[in-house]
Specification:
The complex is a heterodimer of chains A (217) and B (258). Chain A has 217 residues and is mainly α. Chain A is built from 8 helices and no strands. Chain A has one domain. Chain B has a 6-stranded mixed beta sheet, with helices on both faces. The chains are: A mainly alpha (217), B alpha/beta (258).
Chain lengths: 217, 258
Amino acid sequence: MEQLNKVGVNSILIVFLVTIFTGVVIALQSAYALKKFEAAIYIPGMVALSVTRELGPVLTALIIAGKVGASMTAELGTMKVTEQIDALESLASDPVSYLVVPRFFALLIAVPVLTIYGDFIGILGGYLVGVTKLNIGSHMYINLTIDSLICKDVMTGLIKSVFFAMAIAIVSCYEGMKAAGGAEGVGRSTTMSVVMSFVLILTLDVFFTALFYFVFP
Amino acid sequence: MIELKKINKNFQNNKVLNDCSLKINKGETMVIIGRSGVGKSVLLKHIIGILQPDSGDVFVDGQSVPTLKNKDLNKLRLEIGMLFQGAALFDSLTVGENVGFLLREHTSATNELIEKRVKESLATVGLRGIENLMPVSLSGGMKKRVGLARAICSQDLKIILYDEPTTGLDPIMADAINNLIISLHDKLNVTSVAVTHDMNSAYKIADRIAMLYKGKIIAIGTPQQIKETKNPFVKQFIAGDAHGPITEHLAMESQELS
């Protein structure tokens, strides 16, 4: 519960900021491209699809990897180099079940939930641009969004986010638990953890996007 | 009681323990001396199963520690308390939660009983009324004592391991910790193993002293025997002399390397 609070609740604001700006930017950029063809009507659909299928899950995961994953690695790494992990073992407790498992499940719950929230806020960003600047009516925008989205779009995004969560948890806990060499070592592990998580998230994203495109068209 | 049999341990091609053997009798206080980085802490961590030997065996109470299943190893750990060099208190828990950790996680003791035991353990190390403080707000000496209180909180303690119990403390606090180790030994009737390079502490608390050098125990005896040793390596170490066979060997080795 404490971990869920750390991972989830404390990330609401940053996910809000990043996804709303992304929604705004996609709406503006697609408006720039589509206005030439008088096709502004496709903007709600473009925002909704790109946010739910791609940017919502990926950006949320990247934010969590940078913010939460890094702090997990730093915390576990510090515990490791100050012998707190050894102390845990000496007190007959398994560090994996005591430290890693709660963090793993907190991420497994928080990342998909934050992704749904990020999807919603991203669409809201597009809506604000659409209604205030592009003269698409409020009702019209909402209807166009709902029409263009199907359950599969949201679901594929969520499936991705579950795997992203696992990647972040495994990488950041592993890097933390194997930290060595004092403060410098913890710094190195933390950097490694963020870099590895980012690369893994983007690699998994390519893999799942291709899988969903070719296997479940 | 505790027996290390021909233990070998390497870290990244660095041979830390090399066919190291040592027998510690029930109820005695054994102090292992040696230079920093010689593998004293590594040796201690083999006794409680935090580290596994590459080869060789460790027996505690007749049980081979490296081959114990997790469940049995954790059962054995309930009988062993360990004081870590930097105390290794869990920063996210209060002093009280740190001290009562083992009872809370591994016994069915009620909250009242745990509180009582925590108070008793803290009183044993001379601390009172600090249960609700966080470890960050404690001084080095207090942290060590809380670490010691946590190590002795178990109800069926048979062995206490001390990793550099007096390092980093002022001489008065160091002596207080020495007295504490002696009184715990008498009061709880436990087998104690301490590793240190503080010779004052070693002479004061030890029944026997063993010196670890190049991964092996090179001398073992009562404090008096160690003081009167003819072994030039031990002589240099206990006298704290910058010139002697230990440093000469080191210089020769670094010459060979370059």
